[in-house]
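Sequence, please.
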C-alpha cells in the first residue's frame, strides 16, 4: 500500500500532475483530463472483456451459474469521484475502480467459493468488505478485490494507464441494493436532516440481508433433502431389482419364496428411538429430513413413525400424498407389502397424477406375484406418464410371468427405445426372443 501512496499525482490514472496537490485545492482542467482519460477507453474495454472471459472460465463449473459482467468507468463518474476525493482532503487520490468485473451469485455460500477461486487465479493486491447496517451509515455488503491485471493481457492489449482492476462479488440481492443505494444515497448525498429516510433505507437493507440468509437456509435444506432422497431411492430400487429381476433368469423361479419380512420392531437404533415424538418446535420439513435419514439408515420402524407423525399435522393434500408414498416405500423396504399397497393407493387417491404411486403399487403386486393386478397398476401409471422406461420394463416382466411373451417383448422394446443402455432390459429381450423361438419350433 505504501508504494501506491508514494507519488499520488503520478499514480492518478491519466490526470495531469499540475491538477493535484493533496492539501491544496487546484482547479482541475476538466477538458484536459477528459482528453487524457479517454485515450485509454478502447484498451480498457478490451482488457475488461479479457478478464471477464477468464473469470467465466474459472467459474464455469459452478452449479449456481453466477452472472458475470464487466464495465469501465466513464469519465463523468470518474471526474465526480475525483472531485469528492479532493474536497475530502483524502491523502490517497488513487481511483482503483477504473475497470471492473462483477460476479453476481444466487446464494451467500457462493461468495467465499468465488473469492477463493479469484485468489488462486489472479494476483490479489487488496481485499475489502463494504457494508453498513446502522441508520446513520449506508452501503451494501459486497466483497471488493483489487487484482493486478495479468501481464499477458497487458502485453496483448497495451497500456491501460493502470495495472489494477477491481472484482466485485455479491449476491443478487446485494447487487439490487447496491444499484438502488448508489442512486438514492451515494449520488444524492443525503443530508443530516434525512434521519427518518435513513432509517427506512437501513430497514430495507436489513430486510434484503435477512432474505439472503433465508434463501441460503432453504438452499441448504434442499441439498440435505435431495441427498437423503437419493439414498432412499437407491435402496428402494435395489430392493425392487432383488425382488423381481431375479425371477426372470432363475430356473427355480416357481420354488422361490418372497424376500424375508424384517422384524421392524427390532430395527430402532438408540440414537433415533425417541425422535418420532411430536414437538411443537419441530417443523414438517425437519420431521421429513429425520424420516428420510432414518429410512436411509434402515431404521424402517423409526421412519414409518416419523412419516405417521407428519400426517398428524394434517398438511395439505399434496403433501399428504407425498408422505403416504414415502411411508409406503418404508413399508416395502421391510416387506410389509399389504401396508405398502395401502399407502401407495392412498397417495394416488390424494394425487391422481402420481404416476410413481401407481408404479410402486405394480411393483409390490409383482413381488406378491399378483401379475394381472400389477399390469393394471403399470398401465395406470403409463396412462399418466407414458415416458417411463422402467415402468414399461416392469410391465413387460409381468406379461412374461403370465405367459404373454409377445406383449412382454413389445414393452421391453419400447423400454429400450427410451433407455437403450439398460442392461437388464437388453438381457430380458434376449430371453424373450429365445422363448418365442422355442414356441415357434413347437
Amino acid at each position: 500500500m505504501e508504494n501506491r501512496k508514494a507519488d499520488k499525482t503520478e499514480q492518478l490514472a491519466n490526470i495531469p500532475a499540475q491538477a493535484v496537490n493533496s492539501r491544496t485545492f487546484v482547479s482541475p482542467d476538466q477538458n484536459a483530463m477528459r482528453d487524457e482519460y479517454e485515450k485509454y477507453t478502447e484498451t480498457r474495454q478490451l482488457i475488461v472483456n479479457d478478464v471477464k472471459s477468464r473469470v467465466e472460465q474459472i467459474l464455469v463449473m459452478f452449479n449456481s451459474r453466477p452472472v458475470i459482467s464487466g464495465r469501465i468507468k466513464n469519465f463523468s463518474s470518474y471526474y465526480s469521484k475525483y472531485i469528492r476525493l479532493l474536497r475530502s482532503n483524502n491523502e490517497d487520490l488513487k481511483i482503483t475502480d477504473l475497470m471492473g468485473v462483477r460476479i453476481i451469485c444466487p446464494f451467500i455460500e457462493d461468495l467465499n467459493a468465488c473469492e477463493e477461486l479469484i485468489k488462486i487465479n489472479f494476483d490479489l493486491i487488496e481485499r475489502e468488505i463494504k457494508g453498513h447496517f446502522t441508520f446513520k451509515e449506508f452501503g451494501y455488503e459486497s466483497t471488493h478485490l483489487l487484482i493486478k491485471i495479468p501481464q499477458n493481457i497487458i502485453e496483448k492489449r497495451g497500456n491501460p494507464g493502470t495495472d489494477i482492476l477491481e472484482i466485485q462479488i455479491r449476491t443478487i440481492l446485494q447487487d439490487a441494493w447496491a444499484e438502488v443505494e448508489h442512486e438514492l444515497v451515494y449520488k444524492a448525498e443525503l443530508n443530516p436532516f434525512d434521519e427518518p429516510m435513513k432509517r427506512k433505507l437501513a430497514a430495507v437493507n436489513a430486510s434484503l440481508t435477512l432474505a439472503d440468509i433465508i434463501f441460503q437456509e432453504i438452499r441448504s435444506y434442499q441439498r440435505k433433502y435431495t441427498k437423503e432422497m437419493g439414498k432412499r431411492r437407491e435402496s428402494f430400487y435395489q430392493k425392487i431389482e432383488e425382488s423381481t429381476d431375479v425371477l426372470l433368469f432363475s430356473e427355480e423361479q416357481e420354488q422361490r419364496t418372497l424376500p424375508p419380512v424384517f422384524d421392524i420392531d427390532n430395527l430402532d437404533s438408540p440414537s433415533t428411538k425417541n425422535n418420532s415424538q411430536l414437538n411443537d418446535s419441530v417443523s414438517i420439513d425437519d420431521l421429513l429430513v429425520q424420516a428420510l435419514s432414518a429410512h436411509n439408515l434402515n431404521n424402517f420402524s423409526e421412519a414409518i413413525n416419523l412419516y405417521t407423525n407428519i400426517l398428524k399435522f394434517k398438511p395439505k393434500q399434496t403433501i399428504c400424498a407425498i408422505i403416504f408414498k414415502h411411508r409406503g416405500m418404508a413399508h416395502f423396504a421391510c416387506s410389509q407389502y399389504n401396508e405398502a399397497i395401502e399407502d401407495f393407493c392412498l397417495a394416488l387417491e390424494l394425487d391422481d397424477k402420481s404416476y410413481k404411486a401407481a408404479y410402486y403399487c405394480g411393483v409390490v403386486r409383482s413381488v406378491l406375484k399378483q401379475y394381472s393386478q400389477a399390469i393394471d397398476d403399470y398401465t395406470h401409471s403409463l396412462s399418466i406418464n407414458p415416458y417411463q422406461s422402467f415402468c414399461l420394463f416392469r410391465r413387460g416382466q409381468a406379461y412374461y410371468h403370465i405367459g404373454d411373451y409377445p406383449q412382454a417383448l413389445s414393452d421391453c422394446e419400447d423400454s429400450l427405445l427410451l433407455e437403450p443402455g439398460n442392461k437388464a432390459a437388453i438381457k430380458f429381450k434376449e430371453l424373450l426372443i429365445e422363448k418365442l423361438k422355442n414356441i415357434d419350433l413347437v
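The mean pLDDT is 78.
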